[in-house]
Amino acid sequence: MEFFGKALNIVKQSSQCLVVGVYQGKKPKLTVSASQLDEASGKQLSKILAQGDMSGAEGSSLMIYDPLNIKARRILLVGLGGDRKTSSESMRKAASLAAKTLNARNIASADFLLLDAITDSELLTRQARNIVEAVDETVYLYQETKSGRKEKNALSKVNLVTDRKRLSAVKAGVVRGVAVSNGISYTKTLSNLPGNICTPSYLARQAKALQKSHGIKTTVLDEAQMKKLKMGSLLSVSRGSREPAKFIIMEHKGGKKSEKPVVLVGKGLTFDAGGISIKPAGAMDEMKYDMCGGASVFGTMIAVSEMNLPLNVVGIVPSSENLPDGAANKPGDIVTSMAGLTIEILNTDAEGRLILCDALTYAERYKPSAVVDIATLTGACIIALGHHASGLFSNNDKLAKELLKAGDSSGDRAWQLPMWDDYSKQLKSNFADLANIGGRSAGSVTAACFLKHFTESYDWAHLDVAGTAWKSAGPKGATGRPVPLLVEFLLGRC
Ligand code: BES
Ligand code: MN
Ligand code: ZN
Question: Which residues have a beta carbon within 5 Å of ligand 3, which is an ion?
Fold first, then answer.
């Protein structure tokens, strides 16, 4: 998909299709662009709308062919809803509906005239970005592991049309939208790959490839190096697997040398069978998605480097499988983490925290301005928040607010849950410093409390994306979340 910001004469421009907004009302109301086209066509649009085929509600649309006195071949009217101050969400819905319609009708290129009522340049940039992200999201195709002829989208080019005065703000939004979309698509594809292809070594190779394609400095530690660092907790998980663990570090150095980096840590469990505490068979295939947190770190690094953000960002992805095996962790085993804390493994299926804790300790060496970890950590988070919001936990309220705001404005929401000391008691062990599970109640909170023990030296937040990183149906697939939230958060720090 290609996107461009363009200043065009919308009446005289030859175009496969002009995409134009209509507001909902007692009678549908025309936007500025729609009125211009209406005038030029001798009120053709208002006459058609007067027949009542389209309300202007979100989700409504109408294709008009061969409009009168207008050079374009088609006009696609899309509903923006009743509120003339179109929200980000309404804009995304309208753009997505347009993309779906154009694609289904084999239309290769289109000119979107959805930005005409906006004068504020920041809002213009935001809405341009929303359009790009929504269109790209709608036409995403996964075909890595299908044989036969590759599917192709008909729609391949979208112009975001504006006037000269506002062109630079629109173009800025297009650049951001494209960068974020590339990050999201990359994250989705990496996440959708099956566990037999997407192994820790595969992830490590992808990280290396980003060094070439994106100039991201990549370092991969192998198990011997992790052993030297005393990452006993992480290594205990990978011992039960034939695939060696990899510890992936990606660095974007966009800021001053002296500037402290933001560190993102993503859980890269390429398949989670549960280990000896094995999971039930139903839907176990979805545990290939247990590396979605890690994949979102890859995608965010891509977006950050494509936007050339003036910021230092470090991405860390500890990667392993979790399988049952003669060498695997057994319930009751005690391991020593890199931080020196001993951990009693009461359930081998609570492995995410076991690999993350060593990565969080490793993150200390960057003297980070903040650390955010992203993990498909607990099924309990889906029970608490469903599939709409990621769970947010933090040891710093300011950081939590920053992330919540980034989630709101990118439409990739998170919701904060408490981490009071009362919960930490659930992690007491008779035989080690810490148990790796805290019982059935508040499972997401106790998982976060576990991680908190390893993050005392910096500002830290944890995003539990178990409910948001992929969809089990309709259609099944990775969502690319929380790349939009993370990019928004980083943009806010520039
Ligand atoms: N990767 C899972 C969490 C998960 C499960 C995410 C289902 C999305 C859907 C994690 O490693 C896990 O197994 N967690 C356990 C923790 C429990 C043993 C305390 C869980 O949630 O059941
Ligand atoms: Mn597990
Ligand atoms: Zn897991």
Answer: 269, 272, 290, 352
